[in-house]
Structure formats: C-alpha cells, structure tokens
Amino acid sequence: MTRRPGQRLSLPHRPGRPRPGLLLCAGLLAASAAVAQVERTGDYLARMDTDGDGRVSEAEYVAWMGYAFERMDRDGDGVLSAAELPGGKGKPITLEEHRRRLAERFRRQDADRDGYLDARELAAPPR
C-alpha cells in the first residue's frame, strides 16, 4: 500500500475484532462517568455530613436516611402500619427496627471498616 504525503493510513476493520480507538473512548467515558458520580455523591455526602469532617458517621447516616420513615408515619405513632407502607400492604415496622436496618446497611457499606462512609463508599452499589 502506497501512502501519499498528508494521507492518513487506515487499517481495514475486521468484524469481531475490537477497535483500539473505540475501546479507548469507551474507557475514557466510563472513567469520566465514575468521576462525575463521585462528584455528585460528594454533594450528597456534604448534605449528610452535619459536622463537616468530610465523612459520614453511622449516626449521621441513620439520621439522614430516617427522613423517609418520618414522612411516611402519617399518624406519628413510631410504627409504619400496612396502610402507611408503599403499596398499602406489608408487615408493620417500628422506628427502632427501621434504624437498626439502616445501621446494618451502613456497616455493610463501610468497606474499609473505619466507622465512616466516604464519597466512594456512598457511591458503591449496596452490599
């Protein structure tokens, strides 16, 4: 194959073989999406982090995530009855049980077991 000055050399595409340029683009897109997610999670972390230390304690996590219970407990009795649960059915749950489950979820997300969640641990899929 003879190439003229200024002419780009293009390799033929073979079906079934990866194209390096496409793989690089896909990798860069995935990396930028991960960074964007951590940045958005960083915003979320800033809202949960009430003491401003850059991480979320179990108490901060449980307090933040507990808002849903409070909003759903229409009669304010500390128990979500079947009628207050999504879909209007299910087993009643107390505020204490809800908090226990949130604390359990926090401990599963705390990958490095330091007692706090950072932005990456918050962004990670549930364990």
Strand order of the largest sheet: 1-4
How many DSSP-defined strands? Answer: 4
How does the overall form come out from the CA principal axes? extended
Low-confidence parts = 18-38
Taking all Cα atoms into account, the compactness measure Rg is 24 Å
Describe the main β-sheet briefly: 2 strands, antiparallel
Structural category is mainly alpha
Number of helices: 5
* End-to-end Cα distance: 55 Å
Order of helices and strands, N to C?
Answer: HEHHEEHEH
Q: Give the integer mean of the pLDDT values.
A: 79
Amount of helix:
40-55%
Report strand %: 5-15%
Descriptive overview:
The protein is mainly alpha-helical. The protein is 50% helix and 6% strand. Helix 2 (58-65) packs across helix 4.
Summarize the structure.
This protein is mainly alpha-helical and 127 residues long.
Topology of this protein?
Blueprint: H1 20-48, E1 56-57, H2 58-65, H3 67-72, E2 79-80, E3 93-94, H4 95-109, E4 116-117, H5 119-123
Antiparallel strand pairs: 1-4, 2-3
Comma- or semicolon-separated keywords:
127 residues, 5 helices, single chain, 50% helix, mainly alpha, two-stranded antiparallel ribbon
